[in-house]
Write a structure and sequence with these properties.
Order of helices and strands: EEHHHHHHHHHEEEEHHEHHEH
Helix content: 40-55%
Number of strands: 8
Shape: elongated
Number of domains: 2
Strand content: 5-15%
Distance between the termini: 19 Å
Radius of gyration: 25 Å
Strand order of the largest sheet: 6-5-8-7
Number of helices: 14
């Protein structure tokens, strides 16, 4: 991996330790090194020596120091993981396609991952997506796909939602993601025997989550809601496909049949009716896909 420092000097390295050494600032005495220094700045920690001077309870002071040491050790663990993942992916970029980002930009994004992952086990499962996002800074063909909101989106979706979205992209994207189409989706409406009018019993019924191997595919409707909130997917409730056979993979699925049985077993409900509509990927979602997936 090769990056550019603020003074214009260039560095090339293959380990997180070499990265830290290459762009090291003069270490502060109370932090014990460059990485701890960066952590203090990142978390806006106050001067540790000043805290020590005000603390008279030596047992508390010792416990505080041990806690911070453990915290810094874990942070460097996540920092090292994302560094190695980014480095591996940068090496996959053809040499003539690579560009050199500033060290501060890349380092800050890696530190953000370390911070976000510290108490978010689900985000740790999305390390690969985060690493691909960082590598867009090194790739002149993908750098146009970068967006400042993408990092936050990764922290706000679950690993199951990421699996669902990736599978949806694979389904609706044709010709190596150069052409796009819409995928069938349905809602099931029913009426009560004692009241007029219909209401929606099940929304966003599809089998993408089942085909993708999601851990909780029955939560696909909620996944779609969150992906739609993030502006990654486009749901068209008033449009549908003319080819009715494309909806058969839903209506013939065990999941769909289980929903119909649930309605039929409720003696207060009338026969259900399925309404077809569409789901696709937004332009913003396409950029997210290009930046974070491979």
């Amino acid at each position: 991996m090769k990056i550019r420092n603020l003074d214009g000097s260039e560095f090339e390295f293959d380990t997180p330790e070499k990265l830290v050494e290459a762009v090291a600032l003069p270490p502060l005495q109370e932090t014990g090194g460059f990485f701890a220094n960066l952590l203090y700045m990142r978390f806006r920690k106050s001067n540790l020596k000043a805290k020590m001077a005000r603390i008279e309870d030596q047992k508390f002071l010792e416990a505080y120091g041990n806690l911070w040491d453990a915290h810094a050790e874990q942070m460097f663990k996540f920092f090292s993981q994302i560094f190695r993942s980014v480095n591996d992916k940068v090496n996959q970029i053809p040499p003539d396609q690579r560009i050199m980002p500033e060290a501060s930009q890349v380092l800050n994004e890696m530190l953000r991952y370390a911070e976000d992952s510290y108490d978010n086990p689900d985000l740790q499962k999305l390390e690969d997506y985060y690493a691909w996002l960082i590598t867009t800074a090194f790739d002149k063909q993908r750098i146009h796909s970068r967006h400042p909101a993408f990092r936050q989106i990764i922290t706000q979706i679950t690993s199951d939602e990421a699996i669902f979205f990736k599978a949806l992209c694979d389904v609706v994207c044709l010709e190596k993601y150069s052409e796009f189409r819409y995928e069938p989706i349905m809602r099931i409406v029913v009426s009560r025997k004692d009241k007029p009018g219909e209401f929606v019993r099940f929304r966003n019924v599809c089998i993408v989550g089942f085909e993708a191997g999601c851990m909780f595919p029955e939560k696909s409707s909620a996944y779609i809601d969150n992906l739609q909130r993030s502006q990654l997917v486009d749901v068209k409730p008033e449009s549908y496909l003319i080819e009715k056979e494309r909806y058969e993979k839903i209506t013939l699925s065990d999941y769909y049949k289980s929903l119909i049985r649930e309605i039929e077993n409720d003696e207060n409900l009338c026969a259900p009716r399925a309404i077809p509509y569409l789901i696709g990927i937004t332009d913003f979602g396409k950029d997210f896909m290009n930046a974070c997936f491979r």
